[in-house]
Amino acid sequence: MPNSREKVYGFGLGHPRLNPEGTFKVFCKADEGLCLAVRGGALVLATADPTDEHQHWFKDVHFSLRIKDEEGKPVFSLINKATGFAIQHSLGPGHPVRLVKFNPEDFEESVLWTESGHLGRDFGRIRMLYDVNLGLDALPGNEDGGGGVRDGTVITLTERAEGDTQSWKILYWSDEANETCGGLYNEPTCRIYCKANMAFSLTVRNGTVCLAPTDINDKYQEWIEDTRLGDMIKDQEGYPAFALINCATGDAIHASAVKGNPVKSSAVGALFGFLLELKPYNLTYVDEFRLWTKSRDMGEGFRFDQWEYHDS
């Protein structure tokens, strides 16, 4: 029988299968020494303390494949480890962000947020699902005397202004997990080649996915197959989904959502008019355009790699 925490986080990155390296910290550019925390029933900034579980967060991506914001970014929820509270939208601009008990059995859109970019690499905004112009802000109120962010600063929802108090990062508390992409870079690497000419391998050149003469010393020809989502996501034939990440760049092969684009002659062809691109890989960002599956064995161990598109 699963324990209560496994039940609560069974579909999110708090589950051991999807988040083996632990929980996350969330901090803003205004002061990286302050982290999001639950204190006295409110969402505030607190002096970073890895031993304080009120500063530890689970990132739940249960609905991310089906629900996107207006820019196509997948949704997620942030759940506090110590309290089980999820960050909830405020009553409007300038109002404090609320907290609500997280229930994975219910669909509650007020706890769904999206990232403006890869918040594991760069600072960006954490926005409301249905209004990407409104996002988390650690802007000090008048009662703070305008002295900048500090321990105890209350988090509000404000309109986009590109300020440091609106710029956030979401990283593992574990430095090792951040350096190894949640342990992914410790996994064995593979070479990818096609039957047409087995002397060529899949590589990256000038930001393009292409084939090149095989070179075992070329890191750009080494790939990691991330199969963590395979147990939950399968194609129509029942084959598990996976992502392909380049070892040298840390980028994943991504099928562009823009149809009808021409494909460069050096690129590995288009897929039903979709371009193959490389995009920064984020362990906690579930995007169907980077998920692939393998077909049955077509002979001599060769398989057809296919893009697993989930049409909602």
TrEMBL record:
Species for this entry: Oryza meridionalis
InterPro entries named in the record: Ricin_B-like_lectin_EULS3-like (IPR040249), Ricin_B-like_lectins (IPR035992)
Stated name of the protein: PH domain-containing protein
Highest taxon of source: Eukaryota
